[in-house]
Each structure stands twice: as C-alpha cells, then as structure tokens.
C-alpha cells in the first residue's frame, strides 16, 4: 500500500505500453517492502520539453527513458554524465533538488549480463549493428579492455562513424560478418534481426572459436535463432533479457535507496508478463 510519502518514479516512452520496466520495478518494490511506485508514462516526443521540468516540480524521484526519448532528451537535462554523452543517449534520469541528472546504464547492463559467461581472453569482439544499442555495447566492450572491436552494419557509414567515436573500434562490410569471426572472444547481435516478426540474421558461425560467448540484445524470443545455433555448437550464450534487467538496477537504487538483485526468480516473473 502506498502512503502519502511514497517515492514515485516511472518510464517515459511513446509508445510505452510494451515496456516491461513497470513490472520489473514493481517486483523489486514489493520484494524490498518499499513505499513507492513506478508508473508507465506515455509522452509524445514533442511534449518532452514541457514534461521533464514538470516531473521535477511534481516531486518525482526520476524516470527511465525508452524510445524515442533516449537521444532527444540530452539537451533538455541539467546534467549529463560523460558516459551518456559518449553513447549519445540517456536512459535514466535522477531528480535531485529540482535538477534533472541524466545517465546511461545500458553499457553497465550489457556488461553485467555477459560478465559471468565471458571467456578469460578479452581481445576481440564482433558487434553486429550500429544503432543506439550497438553504441552502448561498443562503449562497454572498450571500457572492459577489449583491444579489437569489429563493427559491421548494413549501412556501413554508421559503422564507420563508430570507429571515430569509440576506442579500439574498426568497421567491416556487412557481407563479411561470417568471415570476421575467427579469433573472436565475443559475438554480439545489436541489430533487430531475429526479433519476432523481423527478418532472420543470416550468419555462419563455423569460424567462431568454441570459447567465444554469443549474446543478443533481442529478447523476443528469449532464445533467438542466433543463440540457439550458438548453443548447439557449444558456445556460452547470454540472452538479451538479462541486459534489460541489469540496466534497471542503478535507477532503482538511486530513486528508492536499495540496490536490487537480478535473480532467476525476477527473470521468470518478468517473462510471465
Ligand atoms: P537501436 O537504436 O535499438 O539499436 P536502430 O537504430 O533502429 O535501433 O538500429 C537497428 C539496427 O538493426 C541497425 O544497425 C540496422 O541497420 P541499419 O543501420 O543499416 O538500418 C539493423 N537492421 C535492421 N534491419 C536490418 C536488416 N534487414 N538487415 C541488416 N541490418 C538490419
């Protein structure tokens, strides 16, 4: 039950109905017995400049941002972390003393999700895609010490841009995606390919060393055809839902004062949506 002192946070998106975040945060709020709520807020992009300052005036603790607000919000905030600026997107806003502080926990979420499965060698990673998700992935891999991050994207100009913005990143043409896998320690699908209702990702994993971790940012289905093919070949795999769960941790801690855990029970609960 909420009291008059309840701490309020939420997620801003357009649309927002598909978001799993309210369910995820509600689970943690109940688990910790916190007097608080996390609500979905459907906000049009053109209304963001009015809505964001109003959230501070209404006393919210903060919000998550989902599409299409992650990039658009940057100039509307009082402060933005270097990490969010480098990635070019904000997914977490903390409101303190009426000021809006923007950060990005996608790189953190990505790395926490794969960390238990990573091979010891952190030399080479292959990243498919060059959109917002790929930017967070490249940032995380470079910070983790990967020396060679090869980005391949259907539109190669976008991949080339990443080579100028992140350390250790090089780009290759999309057609080479099966060839560049030799010596890779990690393969990441950061495109929307393989998602339910989208086209399949065509890739031949033969050249990928058996130790290499394969991970997908797509989580509908949870086990994408890429992850199934990798599992069949004996590779360690990490699904994309784990990234979503982990990226939510820093926001929850900042708004509600407790650091929540990502557990198999949480995952099962969120999947039951
Ligand atoms: P996000 O910000 O979530 O990563 P995005 O910017 O729409 O989303 O990026 C989607 C990624 O999937 C892009 O890398 C896109 O490639 P383009 O940059 O060439 O558009 C990739 N993608 C989508 N459909 C694809 C397809 N049919 N074949 C290859 N790549 C595809």
Distinct ligands: 2'-monophosphoadenosine-5'-diphosphate
End-to-end Cα distance:
22 Å
Unreliable stretches, pLDDT < 50, 5 or more residues?
none
How much of the sequence is in beta strands? 15-25%
Shape: globular
Number of helices: 11
Quick one: biggest sheet?
Answer: 6 strands, mixed
Q: Helix share of residues?
A: 25-40%
Strand order of the largest sheet: 2-1-3-5-6-4
Question: Which structural class fits the helix and strand makeup?
Answer: alpha/beta
The SSE string, one letter per element, is EHEHEHEHEEHEHEHEEEHEHHH
Task: Please tell me the overall pLDDT.
Answer: 97
- Strand segment tally: 12
Describe this structure in words.
Helix content is 34%, strand content 21%. It is an alpha/beta fold and 273 residues long. Helix 1 links the parallel strand 1 and strand 2. The chain is globular and about 60 Å long. It binds 2'-monophosphoadenosine-5'-diphosphate.
Short description:
The chain is of the alpha/beta class and 273 residues long.
Write out key terms for the chains shown.
34% helix, 273 residues, six-stranded mixed beta sheet, binds 2'-monophosphoadenosine-5'-diphosphate, alpha/beta, globular, 11 helices, six-stranded parallel beta sheet
List the helices and strands and how they pair.
Blueprint: E1 7-13, H1 21-31, E2 36-42, H2 48-57, E3 62-65, H3 69-72, E4 79-80, H4 82-87, E5 92-96, E6 99-103, H5 106-114, E7 124-128, H6 132-143, E8 148-153, H7 156-165, E9 169-173, E10 186-189, E11 213-216, H8 225-232, E12 237-238, H9 241-247, H10 249-256, H11 264-271
Parallel strand pairs: 1-2, 1-3, 4-6, 7-8, 7-10, 8-9, 10-11, 11-12
Antiparallel strand pairs: 3-5, 5-6
Helix pairs in contact: 5-6, 5-9
The chain binds 2'-monophosphoadenosine-5'-diphosphate.
